[in-house]
């Protein structure tokens, strides 16, 4: 189960990091750099939202799978259905789940990744132009 979750998370991270490089080649062929910037801004929003929403949903699902009671009033009620061998795993999941919420984490990631992608596209655009200038001479 954890391998599947880690694989899906890894695929989402790879998609977030890699897609601008594929789009930049298309934008260079068709001279659509403004559309590339718009697509990056919109797609980063969707991918950031999707990654952290998935992370929150899967953490809640794992907690309920291990027997954690979200509506318990005392520690005995909350951990009543959790087996002792799974107690440490549930505590790790709770520490991951608590803290700042996933929407705030998604916003932070959106800002950082969007800036990184825009700088990377600017550098790639400069390299493409430099390559075209070198081929013409």
- Give the radius of gyration: 21 Å
Task: Tell me the overall shape.
Answer: elongated
**Element order, helices and strands?**
HHHHH
Low-confidence runs (pLDDT<50, min 5 residues)? Answer: none
Report the count of strand segments: 0
**Helix percentage range:** over 70%
Supply the helix-strand structural class. Answer: mainly alpha
Q: Classify the beta-strand content into a percent band.
A: under 5%
Mean pLDDT: 84
Cα-to-Cα separation, first versus last residue: 57 Å
Largest sheet, in brief, is: none
Query: What's the oligomerization state?
Result: single chain
SS element count, helices? 5
Question: What does this entry look like structurally?
Answer:
With 137 residues, the protein is an all-alpha fold. The protein is built from five helices and no strands. It has helices spanning 2-30, 33-65, 75-78, 87-97, 102-136. The chain is elongated, with a radius of gyration of 21 Å. The mean pLDDT is 84.
Explain briefly what this protein structure is.
Helix content is 82%, strand content 0%. It has helices at residues 2-30, 33-65, 75-78, 87-97, 102-136.
């Amino acid at each position: 189960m954890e391998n599947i979750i880690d694989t899906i998370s890894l695929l989402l991270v790879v998609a977030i990091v890699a897609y601008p490089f594929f789009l930049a080649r298309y934008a260079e062929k068709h001279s659509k750099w403004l559309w590339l910037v718009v697509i990056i801004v919109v797609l980063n929003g969707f991918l950031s939202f999707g990654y952290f929403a998935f992370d929150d949903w899967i953490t809640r699902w794992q907690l309920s799978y291990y027997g954690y009671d979200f509506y318990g009033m005392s520690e005995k009620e909350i951990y009543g259905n959790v087996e002792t061998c799974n107690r440490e795993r549930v505590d790790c999941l709770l520490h991951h789940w608590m803290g700042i919420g996933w929407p705030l984490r998604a916003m932070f990631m959106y800002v950082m990744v969007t800036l990184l992608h825009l700088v990377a596209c600017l550098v790639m655009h400069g390299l493409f132009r430099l390559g075209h200038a070198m081929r013409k001479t």
